[in-house]
Write a structure and sequence with these properties.
two-stranded antiparallel ribbon; 20 helices; globular; disordered N terminus; carbohydrate metabolism; glycosidase; Endoglucanase; cellulose degradation
Length: about 500
Amino acid sequence: MSTLKALPLLLCLLLLISLCFFCSAFTSNDYSDALDKSILFFEGQRSGKLPSNQRLTWRGDSALSDGSSSQVDLSGGYYDAGDNLKFGLPMAFTTTLLAWSVIEFGSSMPHQIENARGAVRWGADYLLKAATATPDTLYVQVGDPNMDHKCWERPEDMDTPRNVYKVSPQNPGSDVAAETAAALAAASIVFKDSDPSYSARLLQTAMKVFDFADRYRGSYSDSLSSVVCPFYCSYSGYQDELLWGASWIHRASQDGSYLAYIQSNGHTMGADDDDYSFSWDDKRAGTKILLSEYFLEKNLEDFQGYKAHSDNYICSLIPGTSSFQAQYTPGGLLYKESSSNLQYVTTTSFLLLAYAKYLTSNGGGAAAAVSCGGSAVPADSLVSLARKQVDYILGDNPAKMSYMVGFGQRFPQHIHHRGSSVPSVQAHPDRIPCEAGFQYLYSGSPNPNVLVGAIVGGPDSRDDYADDRNNYQQSEPATYINAPLVGALAFFSSH
């Protein structure tokens, strides 16, 4: 013990983390079960005509005529959360992160890979439609959010306006367009071997959408503020998406012009900023982790800065480092926001694991570490921190409660989700109109339909969670919470 006391605080912390590298409340089978459920969740969020192999059978076909008011087919895609809307920015981000999960950790999900690819394809198919239905146009939303939120009805019954919203040269949306390009490019990598013709179409469309995003610059929040704000405003602007989109297209195509674009434009698009969150809105931290691989793998000096900024991001999460600034709950959960905090936990966990993979795959030894001031944090410590966050979500927390619906002995029963909380069309074939559904929102009974695999918004800064349908900040699931967790669970299921 006297030797330990003599060590600097950081080294003590890292030693403790490393000692517990293989410590977990869960087995590989538990992680595999959670992985399967995390992918299954996306079937509960499907819009459009459901396939014959649909596994969450309490769902039915919905919104089959989306886009018809504009003479285009916009059926399909995902409802973003607990409502019946299709928002393009979070749907594209969800698709990108699902694809990235498969790209990095697909080899760790052999039994779930087809379902994982199916989840990617469901999003990519819709984004293809949205990007190719009309020249020089990207359809970015279906449904009027203000009208939708005045009703509580299952998607199979909805009769609220299915207005269609788009960006164009006159009303640009570089943020949503560049994220769509990123999603299509990332998805093209997923299908490169299994469906090369589909992959090629995805990549070609990604390039066209990116050119559109770059040529007609502007934020979609300015063009469509009344319907995208305050729901999915692009608070971070569009520069981060342009750099993110170019990075994904280069990774998918190896086209040198995109590398040149990154090198020429990175400094004006967030490459010089230290940013400490990664979400559907802000892509800077994720972009730096993605681009750091170019330096680690190919030793491209122009990309050394991305490695340095990636290190700064990681160091901000590690207690005891000189740049530590993250907040954790008493139970050890990363805490950033009072509303839907687990979205930041899942994205951070994924980035920790992806970066650990890049570090160890490209050099090992001293290179397999993060530089935090004068200290080196080994890649294993990143994995341990990610495991702590994932385990907390699955039930290793002060409340002994899983925040994944359907996983563990105790999980949320009253999630803020229309389809889950209203009786299904199988159980109640008669239509349940708009206002009649509110009886189910305010009911104290558990949701009749279990949305297996859904990750809710999560507990507060004191590790407290209210299992209350009305408390949407804590009880609402969302596709972009689950998407990065797919990759993290895949990793832990095989490690």
